[in-house]
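The material for today's practical consists of a large collection of protein records. Getting from the letters to the tokens is the skill we practise here. To make this concrete, we reproduce a full record directly below:
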Amino acid sequence: MPKLVALILTYNEEAHIKRCISSIKNIVDEIVVVDSFSTDSTTKILKSLNIEYYQNNWKNYASQFVYGASHINQNDYILRIDADEYCDEELLYSIETIKTRIDKFDGYYVNRWMTFIRSPISFGGVFPTEMLRIYKNSSGTIESRWMDEHIVLNAKTASTQRLKGKLIDDSLKSLSWWINKHNGYASREAVDVLLQKYGFEVDSIAKKSLSSEAGFKRFLKESVYNHLPFFVGPTLYFCYRYFVRLGFLDGVAGFNFHFFQGFWYRFLVNSKVSEVENFMKHNNVELIEAINEILAINLNSKE
């Protein structure tokens, strides 16, 4: 019978890692952690919990995940979970129920919910997000992207099942930390936008699984949203989430989340794309060099 192995990536996750592991330790057969040389107490906590871990230099989430998956048997199933996520009781029960027959399906979808500065976000049309988070290692791959990577099953005929319960993304860190983190996210997403815009091959779930929720959303982003004028896209997206999809019903937390994640972040991505293009124009350099100079992301690096 295949094992169920949790794969967790960490970097300075002392605030979250114990909670995450405590949530899943009784329903998985093994836990694999790949740490990006944390400078806080993350590795000490892992040692105290008797969790072995690997350390690998960070390039992006996709490459780090591939490194972790390479240490898991191809016939085993991977539970992809972030350090700041945990499973509610219903999801734990659902996973426990399928374990004795886990190889009946190639992958399992779960519903991901989120809090923002400790307040649950229930409106705005963003959550729950249906995501493939359990899959047979040999049956799936992660998109080779700089940002917003998804697990994609290799075969169009792959069988899947949806599990009941919630996977909850509940960061315990501050708004300042969130803004700094998403500034980095915006640089990485700008790389994907620029590569696609200038004709480079970019891995996309929209080309492989358009019928899935993630595939359809990616199709809308790449085919519609990314072609809207600079200011129009973020404004329309915020208004859609906050007014049309009733994001205002989540009160102050709802406004903060949909403003920062639905407008500010998307506007920041557009601004970074524009900055790179202006640098290319005024300095007569190619895209890869401009990305390196402006976003400090070296696409030629093998590390």
Notes: The first strand starts at residue 4 and ends at 10. The chain has two domains: 4-169, 175-295. The first helix runs from residue 17 to 24. Residues 4-169 form a domain with the Spore Coat Polysaccharide Biosynthesis Protein SpsA; Chain A fold (CATH 3.90.550.10).
